[in-house]
Amino acid sequence: MTRNERFEKILMLLRDGELIRARDVAARLGVSERTIWRDMATLVDYGVPIEGERGVGYILRRPVALPPLVLTHDEMAALRHLLRLAEAHVDTRIGSGARTLAAKIRAVMPPDPEDDAPI
């Protein structure tokens, strides 16, 4: 599991708003407690609203989500184009993040009407 995948799983565990101990997160993800401590510090440095400390536990104080957006047809076309470009990025951190972000965005996007257009 990559570090970014671990960050995503940590955020999923924190989403319920309950206090969770580093030892429990570490056991679920198959890493050391020390790794979780470092990951939590990194996530906080990235601006994720995690509160807590070693030996006590961690909690996500407010959800990490974007508000709903209403996009025009042209904005949707631009978003689809940008997702394709981002997924092709060769940097492993950027490319991996772009692919997982694109999958999340595509999961909630309406179908592309151009996909159904006759050729």
From TrEMBL:
<keyword id="KW-0805">Transcription regulation</keyword>
<dbReference type="GO" id="GO:0003700">
    <property type="term" value="F:DNA-binding transcription factor activity"/>
</dbReference>
<dbReference type="InterPro" id="IPR051534">
    <property type="entry name" value="CBASS_pafABC_assoc_protein"/>
</dbReference>
<protein>
    <submittedName>
        <fullName>HTH domain-containing protein</fullName>
    </submittedName>
</protein>
<dbReference type="InterPro" id="IPR001034">
    <property type="entry name" value="DeoR_HTH"/>
</dbReference>
<dbReference type="InterPro" id="IPR036388">
    <property type="entry name" value="WH-like_DNA-bd_sf"/>
</dbReference>
<feature type="domain" description="HTH deoR-type">
    <location>
        <begin position="3"/>
        <end position="58"/>
    </location>
</feature>
<dbReference type="Pfam" id="PF08279">
    <property type="entry name" value="HTH_11"/>
</dbReference>
<dbReference type="InterPro" id="IPR013196">
    <property type="entry name" value="HTH_11"/>
</dbReference>
<dbReference type="InterPro" id="IPR036390">
    <property type="entry name" value="WH_DNA-bd_sf"/>
</dbReference>
<keyword id="KW-0804">Transcription</keyword>
